[in-house]
Amino acid sequence: MARISCHSHIKGLGLDEEGNASDTSSGLVGQKPARESMGIIVDMIRSKKMAGRAVLMAGPPATGKTAIALALAQELGNKIPFSLMVASEVYSSEVKKTEVLMENFRKAIGLRLKEIKEVYEGEVTELVPCETENPLGGYGKTISNVIVTLKTVKGSKQLKLDPTVYELIQREKIEVGDVIYIEVNTGSVKRQGRSDAFATEYDLEAEEYVPLPKGDVHKKKEVVQDVTLHDIDTANSRSDGGQDVLSMVGQLIKNKKTEITDRLRSEVNVIVNRYIERGVAELVPGVLFIDEVHMLDLECFTYLHRALESSISPIVIFATNRGRTVVRGTEDIKSPHGLPADLLDRTMVIKTMPFTKEEILQIIKIRSQFENVELDDEALVHLGEIGFNSTLRYALQLLSPANYLAKIYKTNIVDLKLIKEVADCFMDAKTSAKTLIKEDEKFMK
Ligand SMILES: Nc1ncnc2c1ncn2[C@@H]1O[C@H](COP(=O)(O)OP(=O)(O)OP(=O)(O)O)[C@@H](O)[C@H]1O
């Protein structure tokens, strides 16, 4: 069963070519001004004019701040890094607050490495392993070499390769008809996809089809790899980490937070800067999204202020649903959104507004389709009412239990009676708060 998260229905900002938002598009409903402002930010990020800036998304709970930020990530695609954190993540007993922030900052800064490699590239037209008697005796046979013929638009070439390369070919599951390249220096083999000539007529396929390469089989090729600074830090924190950024990229391992020291980071920065100066690498400032930013304290804000001014800063997007509140880490300094005045001054604020009844109905409809919940009209209208009178989140959360009840009652359609039944089972936050106040009043009497 596929897992569905609360934002899975969001596929992008849903803007047209001129950057205007329609009522409902790409899973997003309403919030047109906020979506259009985000659209401008996407363009500025793409043209690299946004680094070191901060954006604050402010609005009441469940008005789509996180949803719009995730839509921005979808618009940016996977070549621009996007790192998402919730502010309370910084409070760990093992890792310093600033360390957590620094790690997320570096996850949001990408590096595009370009390397000119000498390769053999083409579509495999022949793949024949040659066997010989095992030189150590015994009955088995061993592979002495492998014959691979590669074809390009310009011509074809037969290569006689070492048995170790054959192992790599097997590991990459390469067959005749695949387009591959073999690096001359390292012997590593990379499968780029299946040749266009084998493309089928299916509407949906897992296979990626690539055109027949141009030029000679033996050539110099520019290979591009996208990594983040955090990837390089982690690769380097290994005891056997290499000295060369490019060689380290291939050795990415699991996170080992405590091993990445400030010294290591500054060493990585020096190497990265050298690569940038030589034109081998290009810095790609990405996006760091910090949700519930009012949870950060003064120490974190001071750190953020400094980090935003550094030459390699990503774009930072904050989100909060608080109005005027005390800045954490101070005695009683109140500030809008719980952000210190100087940091607030640096940010551009995007506002999200409460949804109308129509918009709430539309979102519930999209979600019910996404979660495969068949609602009848009355049930949909009633859920809309619930969403409008309590919160959108509460209405969305009732969908799954209602569907579950429907299964118990052996029906496929969730009707008004079922929605009323689940709404009786689970209380929303507002009703719960009112009940508690009443209880308190009774107690005081
Ligand atoms: N404009 C929208 N279109 C479609 N779905 C939306 C929209 N806005 C919010 N949603 C959905 O409503 C739910 C709540 O939204 P979200 O978590 O983004 O709110 P939020 O503003 O970040 O809330 P909070 O301030 O409590 O963190 C999510 O499931 C989200 O996908």
UniProtKB/TrEMBL annotation:
Limits of the AAA+ ATPase domain = 51-354
- Protein's name according to its UniProt entry: RuvB-like helicase
Nucleus as UniProt keyword: yes
**Cell compartments where the protein resides:** Nucleus
Similarity-based family: Belongs to the RuvB family.
Query: Which EC main class describes this enzyme?
Result: hydrolase
Membrane among the record's keywords?
no
One Pfam entry for this protein is TIP49_C
Q: What is its EC number?
A: 3.6.4.12
Q: Which reaction does it catalyse?
A: ATP + H2O = ADP + phosphate + H(+)
Q: What is the lineage of its organism?
A: Eukaryota, Viridiplantae, Streptophyta, Embryophyta, Tracheophyta
According to its UniProt entry, this protein's organism is: Anisodus tanguticus
- Matching InterPro entries: AAA+_ATPase, P-loop_NTPase, RuvB-like, RuvB-like_C, RuvBL1/2_DNA/RNA_bd_dom, TIP49_P-loop
Give GO MF terms, alphabetically: ATP binding; DNA helicase activity; hydrolase activity
Question: Membrane-spanning regions, if any?
Answer: none
What GO CC annotations are associated with the protein? nucleus
| Keywords from the named record | ATP-binding, Helicase, Hydrolase, Nucleotide-binding, Nucleus, Transcription, Transcription regulation
